Amino acid sequence: MADSGPASFLTRANAIYRKNLTYQKRNIWSNVRLIMIPFYLCIVLVCVQALIDSQVNNSVDNQCGCKCIDKTGVEKCQMVCGVEYSTRDQGVFCAIPKPQPWPPLMLIPRPENRAVDTKYTDAPCRRKHSCPVSILLTGNNQSLGATLSRNLLRTSFTMNSFDILSSLADNVLATTYKGSATNYLDAGIVSDLSIYNIQPQCPPHSSFPFSVGQSPLNFTKEMRCVQGLNLWRNSSREINHEIFKGYQKGNSDGLISEIVAAYDLLNTIKTNFNVNIWYNATYKDDSNRPIKLVRVPRLVSLVSNAYLQYLQGPGTRISFEFVKEMPKQETKLRLDLASLIGPVFFTWVILLLLPKQHRLRIIMKMHGLGDGPYWMISYVYFLAISTLFIICLMIFGSAIGLKFFRINDYSLQFVFYFLNINLQISIAFLISSAFSKVETASVAAYIYVFGSGLLGLFLFQFMLEDLSFHRGWILVLELYPGFSLFRGLYELSQFAFHGNLSGRDGMKWKHFSDSGMDEVFYIIIVEWFVSLTVAYYIDKISSSGKDPLFFLKNTFKKSPFSQRPSFQKQVSAASKGMEKLDVIQESEKVEKLMLEQNTSHAIVCHNLKKVYPGRDGNPPKKAVQGLSLAVPTGESFGMLGPNGAGKTSFINTMTGLVKPTSGSAFVNGLSICTEMDRVYTSLGVCPQHDLLWETLTGREHLLFYGRLKNLKGSDLNQAVEEALKSVNLFHGGVADKPAGKYSGGMKRRLSVAISLIGSPKVVYMDEPSTGLDPASRVNLWTAIKRAKRHTAIILTTHSMEEAEFLCDRLGIFVDGRLQCIGNPKELKGRYGGSYVLTMTTASEHEQNMEMLVQEFSPNSKKIYHIAGTQKFEIPKEKVRISEVFQAVEKAKRSFKVFAWGLANTTLEDVFIKVARTAQDFNAFS
């Protein structure tokens, strides 16, 4: 016997934990294969990386140039490698013992982005790309500022072809290309962009070429003049406002307005040189990190020389000839595939861990498994599997040499992955709660997985790398969980790629804030909390029948029947239309029960309706139309009806699988609309289709569901043994075989045993004996009949024999309506008050036989006729049996009678008669 009351939270959690543990033991190799997926993926990456190493990284074209030279004079050469033997592209990889000097450049805005003074408000120079570059000045002494402003730029350009660097040092050279990571090879000189010489006025035809650098790193560049415009501002506040108003935002015309630099001379006088310099330090390299070498030295040199000339005269000057790096060793090209394709590849790898939910949850829920234990155990299970998956991914990736894992900090990676798998589990719960069909949820999950990778690669990554794209919108896009994962993987891959390329470390905790990973972590945590909360909320209102604002309701418990509305005595329109006295009486009985505070009836349905919306131009389907029914404890109620009558829809409505369109129903005083969670604790269900775990045995199924019914210890083992014996699954080792090896009949018997274990107060069985052989069917009927003593049972069936054997009362259901109700004898007496006479004669005597029957029973009706065989329905009250025998003897003397028989009306005849009458009535109406 079950303990009093439903199973506790810990009892149900223990039940599903034990079931999951057993299930996973049986599916251990599936889990091993899942965890081995990272190994296979990493092997693929290593193979492709080996191909890249042989064809790209170790290619002769991507190494320092070499030449065979005879140094000893014995006609035997030796390979010597160096810059002097390299092409321009190969020179980057050579050792540089004496780094190349480069002329210092100033960074200026691109022509279309340059700020203009008020006299250029119409800005025709923007269209011609001829606007001057603006330098702003302010300070306490405007006259001093005017003097320094005149000294900033040289009025003429001179070039000494014998000493290029010295000649260039006497001029102000500029570029629109951002600074480089090093000064081994200045990106402003290497690029295809021109070099600019800034002068107060540009003479016509002031463009000319010049060469700089040493072979093979020598370049011929075109130098063009650009006008420099020095503008005074009254205060540093004006400059600050102008800088931030124009930078990447634009003025009132929507045009970006950038300046070169700004100087605040502060309290500078002849005896004191004090200046602040504004410059653009917002540029970042390809790994989204600030550029270390910005073009500031030339700005400092300009103002320093201007002040020196102010003190000593125009002939005084400090020459700023060049910039250069420290010597470096030979390097090699190191392209890491895992880092290059890391964002999209590992997005798919991690998102493929998205847990999939199955229909088996609903059958567990119907047998009393609450949401709390299910969510907790399922969450912990998915978290353990996913964590093991991630750890294996990191170990395998590092062991076989993927820089994506080796270079980046392991603890930072693990925390990032761990947060993401928690988010994914909550999203899986959200998807399963939002979609009622498993197929729809699976499609949505796969679209989410692959769509996130593709959108991240072709859309989100483009936005990340476009510095003109507003960073606030990046934050908004990362609220989509797939993009937050992609962003984190993108940052890890960029740090790994450039770290490997330059020989530096990858991402460490010290880069946490600068890299943008901090906002990714915060977003993932917020998304995890929100998605888990929303999933719980949707699950509550969709599967438990709660009001959408259930959390605002009064938490004090109320009497179950106090929530029922007050009903006046009335007869449903459906009952009136059909004028079935037994159905009307059942409806009146339900009306009285609805007004009572307590009742012995386990199941009470009042005017229950279920209408499925019309699709593809079809009208709505009325599956259940105003059903009123009361079933007391200890009664077995059978629902008969043709296919499509609405029997299964009624069962699905009563078990919470679908929501009723209108009406109400109560199970042990609890509403199926608002208290389904409590209804499930006293419910047993045998669905139309078996829902079993293929790898669990019959005994393990019953142990699990018995624990949900609060059975423990010896009571549990005894109940399981009795249940197996009652459905003939105990002997021959059948109980300990996996359910996947059961026949269809054995699975059906196990489903019935599951519905009856723990003595539930209400049991629903949808065609329980389908597919069973006659012996097994009778054995199953005996088990069901024995179990109904303390249980209310509603079952559907197409077997009239089963209905007569099991059911205390029957209801015939046609087109969603209850047509009649009563015990089998009453129905046969009410709808079957006639004999059925069957006679088979030669075809030429059929008319004679019909005339003979009409003689002794004028009210008889022929109900069957084929190939000489005729059936006649003869009212019992109009004829005696002796008269029928006399008529048959008379017929035998007149013509040949091959066979004949006389029988009472069967339940099958009643069913056919009621179903046909109801269908004809509905078709006519």
UniProtKB/TrEMBL annotation:
It holds the Pfam family ABCA12_C. GO terms for molecular function: ABC-type transporter activity; ATP binding; ATP hydrolysis activity; lipid transporter activity. Belongs to the ABC transporter superfamily. ABCA family. CPR flippase (TC 3.A.1.211) subfamily. It comes from the Eukaryota. One of its GO terms (cellular component) is membrane. It comes from Eutrema salsugineum. This is ABC transporter domain-containing protein. Residues 603-840 form the ABC transporter domain. CDD domains: ABC_subfamily_A. The lineage of its organism: Eukaryota, Viridiplantae, Streptophyta, Embryophyta, Tracheophyta. SUPFAM superfamilies: P-loop containing nucleoside triphosphate hydrolases. It is found in: Membrane. Coiled coil: none annotated. Its main location: membrane. InterPro entries: AAA+_ATPase, ABC_transporter-like_ATP-bd, ABC_transporter-like_CS, ABCA, P-loop_NTPase. The chain crosses the membrane at residues 32-52, 335-354, 374-402, 414-435, 441-460. The keyword Transmembrane applies. SMART domains: AAA. Keywords: ATP-binding, Membrane, Nucleotide-binding, Transmembrane, Transmembrane helix.
